[in-house]
Structure of Peptidase MA-like domain-containing protein:
Amino acid sequence: MSRGSVARRCGLRCIAVAALAAVAGLGVVAPARAQYFGQNKVQYLQYDWQSIESDHFQVYYYPELDSLARRVLDLAEKTNAVLSVSMGHSLTRRVPIILYGSHNDFSQTNVTPELIDAGTGGFTELLRNRVVIPFMGPYEDLRHVVVHELTHAYMFDMLYGGAAGAMLARQSFYQVPLWFAEGLAEYNSLGMESNAEMFLRDGTISGYLPPLEYAGGYIVYKQGQSAVSYLVDRYGEPRLRDLLQRMRQMHSFERAFQRSLGVPVERFDDQWREWLRKRYWPTVATKEDPEHFARRLTDHRRDTSFLNTAPAVSPQGDRIAFVSDRRQYTDVYLMSAFDGKILRRVIRGERNVQFEAIPSFRASLAWSPKGDELALVAKSGGHDVLYVVSAESGRIRKRFDLGCPTLEFPAWSPVSDSIAVVGVKGDRADVYVVDRGSGRTARLTNDTYDEMELTWRPDGGGITFASDRLAPVVLHPLRRDKQFGAYGIFDLDLRTMQVKQVVDTHGEDHSPAWSADGTKLAFISDYGGTPNIFLYDTKGGSITQLTDVQGGVTSLTWSRQHDRLVFAAYNRGGVDVFAVREALSMDPVMEHLRAQAPQAVESADAMERERIDSVRVAPSKGALATTWPDTLTGPDSTLMARGEVTRRNGLGGDSLAGAVRNAAETPRWSMGGMPQGWAPPDTAAPLPTRSPLHDEGGPFAVSDSVLSQKPEKYRGHLSADYAGAGFYASTLGVIGQSQFAFSDFLGNHNLYVATDVFSDNLAETNALAVYSYLPQRWDFSAGLFHFKNYYSSAITPLGEQLGTPRLFSERNYGALISAAYPFDRFHRMELGYTQMFVEREFFFEDANGILYSDGKQFRSVSSPSISLVGDNALFGYYGPVNGQRYNLTVSPSFAWFDKALAYRTATLDMRRYWDLTRGHTIAARILGGLDPRLAHRHRKPRVPLPLHPAARPRRAAAARALQPARRRVRRSRHGVGPGRVAAPERVGGRPSPSPGRDARVRNGDPHGAVLLHREARRRLAHGLRRHQPAALALQHRSRVLSDPAAERRGRVDRARSRRGLDGLPALG
């Protein structure tokens, strides 16, 4: 065998890898992944899955969610009737919907290998067009998420055919901008609402809105929502439908946009921004910055945070507890109520299993009557837990597990040890009360309505909360005023157990807070389009608007012993805490503004009336019904209106009452009826509904037989997620590589197969097959492998010393098994065993450059391993920025077979990161090991090239192309060189057991099978274009020194941006 033939074989292998890389570049995530650190996805529970189906959808759920699943199926069919008209497309295949009963259950899903954080409210994946959603309590949120995700499913079905096979078609290279994909989904599910108006108004005035094409994070949802709304307002809904059709035909968003609307996307962006300025800049004269009437206690611009929310003022009025992300993690802080000085960090969240996650948008903190303890909810393990902690040290005093997967909004009675909390279980969110001393729990409500943001009356005789019980629970794809989903303020009397309505402003009312004497109730309402603080007088029945802020108020609290009102407001791109002393003496905001600039106020009033009319959408006649088959048609107790709303002259506006007027002079309305002479804003002339439903027979888009069908038990079977191949043929031969990924529908079983085939000799073929079993807490995997590689080195991949550099080949084959047990999200144990057999053949070269066999060696490696892994690091754009990670591994090899190697290996890798400021991080690392072979691990590789002088320049260039850059790549113990298919450390696309140190590859590539370094690939491609033959090079299995989880997160984010894969943030 000539040396040239060895070189050609090496070159063919690298060419095949380049072809396979082109296929893998489609962004498909292979089920086998390398993982060195990484956090865990823990399956705390196993579910008995079943399904029901209709003409267009199939809902998968577990028995506890039977009633909820039938509602989702009905809502999905109604949504289909709307989207088929608005998008001009009919589904080509049935869309699967996988339903979880809580966000904690949802975070355990195996449909996606990625970790799911608290901000993800649902997602739609591309390969099988699966929609995965949790139920988190409010039915309005469920309606929003279902319509949002089904919009994505419709778009995938329209553009890609809804099948994995389309990944290899021309459409797979077609990218839909994230702003349009998410904006269309938000527009279809919400229209334009006050939350979007708040972000757009503040962003336009403050000037931080990025161009549409560069928008990311949560703001891209709101920017896209506004841009699509503007597109429909200016060009009409038929033009939007035409744009979608042209996208399908032309496979280019930019060309379709230009052809359909007659303007390029960049020009449309400019027009939309001009429209925003005309819409919002005049409000600068009529709205106030919170600092004009309140003291700023936090500043997100200085501490580089985004959220400073959920303030809770102590009973003494001197301290405020709040939730903040100022140090990247979501923590609980204590600050002075007088000057905002941070006193201490009470709770460190997202670092340990006790406080695995602290909800930020639906968070609530509660003080004990003495002011020495705090009550809060945090995720711990697979469910939420109610904690009572010391306000001074943060030490846990009490821990209550109520048996509900989700807990929210704790509130502590001002006169006892009773703590009220909202618990979500099954398809219901209800109020529970826990006794701090005995731990006894009582359920106070039992209905399908949502209760949130609890507060106690000052005398402890009742619990006041916001609820959507203004209308029956009937889910509909279009959000409509005064139908289901609108929130008002209600009160539960603990003596009579009657629920009575306190106030309804005909807006979204929430966050009630009582004054110390119980005669005034402050709350937040978005009446008029902006969330502001209102004050309800229980004696006179009047409502006064206290604020008119530029952004919006998100939460508030009122001191029990001092007239100190503390609130959180969105302002200048972040949420901050503000405080007002003597809130009862505040002047009504509109009186103050009208005195300063009366003409500006009247102009703003007219603009606001126009804006309200453009936002409100009235129900079409007959589209909704007032009943549901389970007879839950109304609240479980009597509703009674207690408040009468006063309002200033003229419809619309942000102020219900510029000043408190005499009740006889001011028109009023209540739940009981409407006086003659004028109409409340609900009855103003609305826009027509965008798309009619075809369900004249009633509220259901599916028949009774479908809704009452018997569920079918889920039986998983493997089917293809992805199949890809790359081939190369030349006069040197034919080479081909392929990847196949199989899984069941829920992602609990995964099979990954990769091959590397050479036409001239099957002994040169590389192959890998790994099966993973993932539905339980223990994760198991097993695999077979076969690899053939060529080397020139004085050290073998197993660490054996050869004395002088020699040419040799190695054929490695064997099996691996592994298991991993995650203790919690941050810690796990890995067990593995690898049995590998090695056939090594040496070569020598004669004077003519011909290679001859120079003997063979046989080795076997029997290597069990155990690893302890911990990781609570938080990532930025380029890698970890905070937290710590460690990996302790012991991996011996025993002489259990003939000619076996025996050695002992132990390694410890510890890393710590400190976030000094945004953009500045200090990192420290401790790395140590016990193994004589490790001394050679980082030695500079040598590539002997005893070639004829005429051949040396070209061969040397090719050798450099195959050798990774030393500053970015380090060698690993066993050689599977650049461009090899290698055994994975991460199988099933999630933190999973290591298959063993002797057959695995540690690299940063999320596909786990394509190991060709980018720089080497670029150099190799350059050499191939110049027809340089590849020389035999020293090949080492390589690992990118950037962190694997950081690389994985970055690629997933880019994949979502390209394909609109959705991680819908939960709205507060």
Q: What stands out?
A: The chain has four domains: 3-41+721-1057, 50-172+678-713, 174-285, 290-619+632-649. The domain at 290-619+632-649 is CATH 2.120.10.30 (Neuraminidase). Residues 456 and 463 are 5 Å apart (CA to CA). The first strand starts at residue 32 and ends at 33.
